[in-house]
């Protein structure tokens, strides 16, 4: 499924509802993967996006500003927001424009340099658990596509709990596609699916590449909604709500002159997304809002 040199990493589904990479990469290997200067141009998007992350700055900051304003409205105001896995700082910049006081933690040196140098953001280089954050000082912790990269998500959540104020909120976004019935169904049917129908980019995104080479094992875990909710609740949080959706592949939705095949696939993805958001279908991605109870 994944590969580093000649070493292959397979996916195993646990009875607990989690999917994990086997063998499990050690901390040094994980650090090496995020030291790669090409991560934010080739690795970060895993096939959902086709453009270089850094060239999309204005587009993403505007998108994230709208997201942060909606979050502030739902929570009753802005406050101290900390992002785990801040990347180049685009969400933090959007949240700052929406009125939050922002900081973040990140592992990738090129991303840290960009966030600090281009946006003037306060970024801790290293793990969130090691960041100098006073206990009970944060209003919001934001973790977008982070927990699936963690070797110890329970420890991350315990650290979040400690740093949040009573009544503070945690936002978690994780992919769930590999841990979904869609992937299991497509994996069984892969030999009967014409490659020309889906096309190379979509086959790779759906992890149906015939060579079984889907890049480095960035996702060491993958949750389903129930497994994620159990993990967050076990850390002491109250689940406020969870939403399901599917990422929309850029090569389908950014095509200026789509052919009939592309239009048909757009319809499939939009239909799936609508069904997931309405709660009728399992999600390929989960957005979860949780709150630390008042003491």
Overview features:
7-stranded mixed sheet, Rossmann fold, 11 strands, 4-stranded antiparallel sheet, 295 residues
Structural overview:
The protein is an alpha/beta fold. It has a single domain, classed as Vaccinia Virus protein VP39 (Rossmann fold, 3-Layer(aba) Sandwich), CATH 3.40.50.150. It is 38% helix and 22% strand. It is built from twelve helices and eleven strands. It has helices at residues 27-35, 39-43, 57-75, 90-97, 109-119, 153-163, 181-188, 195-198, 200-205, 225-234, 250-253, 260-277; strands at 2-4, 7-13, 19-22, 80-84, 101-106, 123-125, 138-144, 164-175, 221-222, 238-245, 285-291. The strands form two sheets. A seven-stranded mixed β-sheet has the order 6-5-4-7-8-11-10, sandwiched between helices. Strands 1-2-3-9 form a four-stranded antiparallel β-sheet, with no helix packed on it.
